[in-house]
Here is the input.
Amino acid sequence: MESNKTYLFKQSINLMLDHIQELPEDQNIMANDMELTRQLKISRTTVRACVEHLIENGLVKRQGSHKVVLRQPQDSDFFDIEDKASTKDKQIEKYFMSLIHHGKLLPGDRFSELSLAKNSGCTTISVREFLIKFSNNGLIEKIPRGRWKMVKFDEDFARELISFREMVEMRAITELLKQPKDHPVWQELRELLVKHQEVSLDMKNRYLEFPDLDRELHFIILKSAKNRFTKQFFDIVSFVCHYHYQWDKTGELERFTIAIHEHIDLLNNLVTHNNAGAILSLEKHLQTAEITLLRCVHGLES
Here is the structure.
C-alpha cells in the first residue's frame, strides 16, 4: 500500500521516473545501481527496492546486468509527496531542527544516528532516512560508524547558493507577475502583507516570527514557477540560509528588522501590481540576503 512507503522511497521513485523520462530517445537502458546511488544520494538498498517497484509496475525489466525501460512513466506512476512526509519524518525533522535552533548542534559538531533516535523517540531507520534526505542540503555529511557531522560552510558555498537562488527566484517572480488580478495568489499575498505589518510594529518582541514569514513569502514566489525541482531547491535555501543564520545570533534583531521592511516593500509592489517595483524590490532583498549570509559565514569562521 502507498501509505506504507517511506518519504525517501517515494521521493527516490519520483527521481528515478524523472531519470527515465530524461533518457535520450534512442536509449532504453537505465543507469546502473552504483550510478543511481551517486546521482540520487541514496543507499544501494534503497536503489534496489525502488528498482523492484519499477519492475512490479511494468516500467522496466532486468536483462542481465541492465535495467531495460519498457514504457514511459505516466502521471499515476509518480507519488504525491507534497507536504505528506510521515509522522515520524516530521517528528525527527522537528527534533533535529530544534537542536540547531537552540545552538545544540553547531558547525563542526558530530552526532550519531543512535543518539538522535533515542532522544527523538524515532527508530534508527527513520533517523537514517531523514539524515540521508537532509544531507542533500549540504548541511551535514556522513562519517563512519553511523555518525554524522555538521558542515562548516565557506564563502564559495554561500556565494554559489545565493547566485543560484537569484536565478531561480527572479525567474519565478516573472511568472507570478503574469497571473491575472483575480488569481487567489494575490489574496494570499495581501494576507501575508498584513502579517508582516503586524510583526513589524513589535519587532522587539516578535522578531523570531520572521523566519516563518520569510519562508511563506519565498514559497509563494517559487511555486509560481511550476517546476518540479522548485520544492527541493526551496528546502535547500530554507535549511541552509535560515538555520545557518541561527548559528550566529549576532545582530539577529537588526537583520530581521531590515529584512521584514524589505519584504513589506516587495509585498506592497506585488499587491499593487507594480511589476517593475516588485522586481527591483526582490533584487534588493536577495542582495541583502547575500550580505547577511556572508557575514554569518565569516562570523562562524573567526
Q: What stands out?
A: The two ends are 51 Å apart (CA to CA).
